[in-house]
Write a structure and sequence with these properties.
448 residues, mainly alpha, 2 domains, 16 helices, 83% helix, globular
């Protein structure tokens, strides 16, 4: 009996020793691997935010029917297209300069561009809004022009401040804002839905969830900008704008065309099949992306911060960093995405309500594209390597193929599921091309 007790005791001691050893190794990795550390910090907070978002969705789907969700999908798609041009692509440059003074001037330039474009957007919507809404049969957005301007300005400012925070590698601050965004956005949608605000409530809740956090991110940089403005050098701004001119010349059109290829399905599906179908489509897409997007987004942002630093020193480690990051993304994301796609037609009605029973039909067609997007889109940095023109050509090619696919679906009067399958297949092939281009770009930079 004593011998058995001694064996059990020794086993427990060994187990504790191995556990302490594993914990020590994990802590050591976090301290020495800045990429992993950033992923853990941002990823953990974003995971909490995404889980909270998923928890609230079954409540929201019982408050808002699919057609109301469809109006939100169309609104956010149009807004996403506008936000691409928010600072003409200069926000991407914030992590790149070696001197903080240069980065601050680029930040001021980005803010100035946002203010000018917000005013232009307000004038255009005031004068031509009804005409444009009538052309595309989106008359429901007529009362929400002011929300376009508010959303454009607020989300653009948050986006710029996020890039600045990535420069300083203050990942914890980004984590806190994401959790706050998830909670505030979901709670706002529920409250406004209970009060029967309909589409307005869903759209306002979405904007609240995407704008919250500006004060937190800007708390440290805004006082510094105020000091810089007192001794502002216009010549320096012009010099920096010229130095990074490839971003508005190549990256901006590439990003806009990229968003067209991502957002046009929502707009075309709404036009071809109505808001009911686009609402089902948007819910399916979000449910496939949400469980893994926190890792993709976290790795993408941390990869930008780390790769920018490695790139500044022209280190050969950048190729290994890219390949290792994409490999980890695929091994993590593919099993989760495909498993979710298979079981979603069975569980959607149980989780989201009977009104959403047809949403799962889009899961399998979308899953192959989501895997490609998850692995490649978050690590695509062709503009960072100086190949902005490659990015532009790739986006033009992809968008042309996507539009051609939808045109064929329209000509042959295909139903929703085959239409989405064609779109998904085209996107998957193009993500593979993008991966090859990033490898070639990195090797070309290293040769120089």
């Amino acid at each position: 009996m004593n011998r058995e007790s001694s064996q059990v005791k020794n086993f427990i001691i060994r187990l504790k020793t191995q556990g302490n050893s594993l914990r020590t190794k994990i802590i050591s990795w976090l301290l020495t691997d800045s990429l992993l550390k950033g992923i853990v910090i941002i990823g953990s907070g974003t995971a909490v935010a995404q889980v909270l978002g998923i928890v609230f969705v079954p409540i929201l789907t019982r408050i808002y029917p699919p057609d109301i969700y469809g109006t939100l999908a169309v609104f956010t798609s149009l807004l996403s297209l506008l936000i691409v041009a928010s600072s003409l692509g200069y926000e991407i440059t914030l992590p790149l300069p070696e001197k903080d003074d240069d980065a601050e001037y680029l930040l001021i330039l980005s803010f100035f561009i946002i203010c000018i474009l917000t005013i232009i957007l307000f004038v255009v919507l005031t004068l031509l809004g009804d005409f444009l809404a009538g052309i595309f049969h989106f008359e429901f957005i007529k009362p929400y022009y002011w929300l376009f301007c508010l959303g454009f300005f607020g989300i653009s400012v948050y986006q710029i401040l996020t890039f600045w925070t990535l420069r300083s590698k203050d990942y914890m601050t980004i984590t806190r804002t994401r959790i706050a965004q998830s909670i505030s956005g979901s709670v706002s949608k529920i409250i406004l839905g209970i009060l029967a605000f309909g589409s307005l409530g869903l759209i306002c809740g979405e904007l609240i969830g995407r704008i919250v956090g500006i004060g937190t991110l800007g708390r440290t940089i805004i006082p510094r900008i105020w000091v810089t403005l007192h001794d502002f050098d216009v010549t320096k701004v012009r010099t920096l704008a010229h130095r990074y001119r490839k971003f508005p010349i190549f990256s901006l059109p590439a990003s806009f065309i990229n968003q067209i290829s991502l957002q046009v399905p929502t707009l075309i599906i709404a036009g071809m099949f109505g808001f009911q179908v686009v609402g089902l489509y948007s819910l399916t897409y979000s449910m496939l992306v949400l469980p893994v997007s926190f890792i993709s987004s976290s790795i993408g942002q941390v990869f930008l911060g780390e790769s920018s630093e490695v790139f500044r020193h022209r280190s050969g480690e950048i190729l290994a960093l890219y390949q290792d990051t994409t490999k980890k993304l695929f091994l993590f994301g593919a099993p989760i995405i495909f498993t979710g796609a298979i079981i979603s037609p069975l569980i959607f009605p149980l989780i989201f309500g009977s009104a959403w029973k047809d949403a799962g039909m889009f899961s399998l067609p979308l899953s192959i594209m989501v895997v490609g997007q998850f692995v490649v889109a978050s690590t695509d940095r062709l503009e960072l390597y100086g190949f902005n023109h490659w990015e532009l050509v790739w986006n033009i090619s992809r968008t042309s193929l996507v539009l051609s696919g939808f045109y064929l679906s329209y000509v042959f009067a295909l139903p929703p599921v085959p239409t989405v399958l064609i779109y998904s297949s085209i996107m998957t092939v193009m993500y593979g091309v993008n991966y090859i281009l990033n490898i070639k770009a990195i090797k070309h930079v290293l040769k120089k």
